[in-house]
Specification:
By secondary structure, the protein is mainly α. It has two domains: 16-200, no CATH class; 201-281, no CATH class. It is 77% helix and 1% strand.
Amino acid sequence: MAEQKKKRNSNEGEMSFLEHLEELRWHIIRSVVVIMVLMIVAFVFKNIIFDRIILAPKEPGFFTNRLLCQLGQLVHIDALCINTEPVNLISIKMAGQITTHITVALVAGPILAFPYFLLEFLQFFKPALHPNERKNARGGVFAASLLFFTGVLFGYYALAPLSIHFLTTYQVSPDVVNQINIRSFIGTLTSICLATGLIFELPILVFFLTRVGIITPQFMMKYRRHSIVVIVILAAIITPPDVFSQMLVCIPLLGLYEVGILISKRVMKKKAKEHEEFMKS
């Protein structure tokens, strides 16, 4: 262990501060290039981005809408049939559609490049890590990417159709007609998917907070009841004000919290083992 530490220190000493900055600059440049390429791809394939992805949840034939409607027919609950009528979107500015197209491409690029950005981040810090830490870091990049996109898909397939149905059909009076602006529609869909994607990173956050000693498994178990209140509040923020949608968010978040406790316990055991080995050496 002492030899590994000495070797790591000697490797770090091989590069000056300016050389580290130069290395960081190239990692940033490569990340920006990938993001720009993916922005261009998203801009070119607008039919797929808009018709098959962004606008799909408002259509009756969308997977979630069809599934809920079939379930409603089986249990004889008509309320489960949502988005039975396509929502007509409008653009109220002359350049509204082209600016929307550009904005969506600008947002899609960083989202699609998220795993690559994490890999570049890992490559920059890789020389300062032990061999076993490098292996764990690669697994962390995969886990973080998987959790993020799982959260995005959960928001897209589970929450977005419910939110669209509730917000587009809600009326304060029959005299007021809903005319939904496309920018408002896309903004709502994006905020839901990104919010769930970030919230699903909870196990990764727990891992790092436990690693640096900010939280412990005992702390998380002690404040489990308080966490339920926080989760309910988060669910109320990112979902429309109906009980079904809020419960749909609360269940996986509670599951992630319990997973976080298990991860925290594992990290604490590993830290205790490392400390024991250090004391013996």
